[in-house]
Amino acid sequence: MTTTATTPATKQFMSSAQLLEHWQGHRNLTRRVIDAFPEKELFEFSVAGMRPFAKLAVELISIAGPALKGITEKNMDAYNEEGFNPTTKEDILKKWDEETEVINHYFNQISEERMQENFNLFGQYEFPVYQNILYFIDNEIHHRGQGYVYLRSLGIEPPFFWERF
Predict the structure, then answer these.
(1) Cys-Cys crosslink for 106: which of 11, 39, 55, 68, Cβ 3.0 to 4.6 Å?
(2) Residue 51, Cβ neighbours under 10 Å: how many?
(3) pLDDT tens readout for residues 3-23
(4) What CATH number is given to the structural domain containing 86?
(5) Which of 35, 67, 41 is nearest to 139 (CA)?
């Protein structure tokens, strides 16, 4: 008797659509953290020499949409945080919402196959596209954690981290 071993087809852990949904859940939560700050403290309050949360939000805004645009257009322009200089919380929230649409637009142009391709993000970070995207999410979570510390230091209860709607 002869037996043949078969290997089940490799199943994909997560689709691109699920990754985008996960990321947008984090963005929804970060938006709520931005909104929880009083106006003055958003731009001025910091702990232990860290940047105020407005500057962290500008960094996040300056990375995600422009990076996805660069990936889809195969453009490796350098990272630039100088183009957006908000003066109010409303400025930040408005730009955050605009960048959410930019993210949706460009993310949906990246094929499943392209996720595995190397891309030199901002001409500095040579990784597969999916790793660059995971970096965007990780960086946002890291900075949102700083925002949580700031809010708690100000006596403000931050949004629950698991509520990403």
Answers:
(1) 68
(2) 13
(3) 555 555 667 788 899 999 999
(4) 1.20.120.450
(5) 67
